[in-house]
Design a protein that fits this description.
Chains A, B: GO terms for molecular function: ATP binding; GMP kinase activity. Chains A, B: It comes from Mesobacillus subterraneus. Two copies of one chain form a homodimer. Chain A is globular, with a radius of gyration of 18 Å. Chain A contains eight helices and nine strands. By secondary structure, chain A is α/β, with parallel strands linked by helices. Chains A and B meet through strand 8, helix 6, strand 9, helix 7 and helix 8 of A and strand 8, helix 6, strand 9, helix 7 and helix 8 of B.
């Protein structure tokens, strides 16, 4: 029987740099997991491409996906929907490949309920001040949006409880390296590999 | 309060290459843990140095250490004692540094009882045949010793149950890399870092 892949879920407060870390991971040639592209109703930022960064959907299209149960998780965040199409995730895991999701914290807790055996990684800011700096220097948001995000971030940090690992995003290459280490380590967990060695003992 | 270091225990069947993997790990400049040198009554192999590879002891000296409770663990294996002096381990962990032990499987289960929170890594051969090849090509043992070791290896593989991680020693640099990844991942475990972030939430 084909061994199933790992479901790797990267989440964390808005503005912490999930997308940057994910891009760093997937720019490295030895990254051996498949990226699951999310669907969203928010407008593309400069340089974002449909089907690569997100599947950009209208609100009507997105709500149809919800009704048809085509989403592993979805969340509404700052007025927009974000979600993960389920079909690609299941097919890739069944083929024995690891799947990587980069999603908002609301969505991550939905995935936790459906895939408790998944690998949940919380990307954390070095400090809340640092988080604020990052949001401000993005330079495209009003002060009210920033304040709202700070409040959300505090709530989201409390959600850390649901995760297996916490990776501090002090520096993007280091954060990506830690995530790769976590995936390598999880593949070495005794429960996961034990059955292979039990076979060796049966054959003399 | 100073956060304690991790106790990392590498063990596995005799002949699997624990010493070679340990040497590879400690030859790399970015390895950030301290090696705990074992004590033994076996004779030095060519190139082994006292205080670096082992503390070489007489049987009388070793039994005195046992009586004085100076050993974290000890085992008798193929007619010789092997053990870990406890003082260095406790002092290094208390100073917040990770300590690395490379020990026989008998000893590892003693350490598990005393340090259940330790990180236990089982170094496994790619196959029992491969294990046999390695022992034979070392070229210094009789056939009876080899047969005895094969039997021991099968028993030791059954001991895998006690470990957190299994690292296959298919290739020494890869095995060392996996061990480093496991240590990095363990430092990111949520339980371990959560209290740091809780502090951030208390301070507004």
């Amino acid at each position: 029987m084909q061994e199933k892949g790992l479901l790797i879920v990267l989440s964390g407060p808005s503005g912490v740099g999930k997308g940057t870390v994910r891009k760093e991971l997937f720019s490295q040639p030895d990254t051996a997991f498949e990226y699951s592209v999310s669907a969203t109703t928010r407008l593309p930022r400069e340089g974002e491409r449909n089907g690569v960064d997100y599947f950009f959907k209208t609100r009507e299209e997105f709500e149809e996906m919800i009704r048809d149960d085509q989403l592993l998780e979805y969340a509404e965040f700052v007025g927009n929907y974000y979600g993960t199409p389920v079909e690609y995730v299941r097919a890739t895991l069944d083929a024995g490949k690891d799947v990587f999701l980069e999603i908002e914290v609301q969505g991550a807790s939905q995935v936790r309920r459906k895939f408790p055996e998944g690998l949940f990684i919380f990307l954390a800011p070095p400090s809340l001040l640092e988080l604020e700096n990052r949001i401000v220097t993005r330079g495209t948001e009003t002060e009210d949006i920033i304040k709202g995000r700070m409040k959300a971030a505090r709530e989201e940090l409390e959600m850390m409880e649901l995760y297996d690992y916490v990776v501090e995003n002090d520096q993007v290459e280091r954060a990506a390296g830690r995530i790769k280490s976590i995936v390598i380590a999880e593949h070495c967990r005794r429960e996961r590999v034990q059955h292979r060695y039990k076979k060796m003992l049966e054959v003399d």
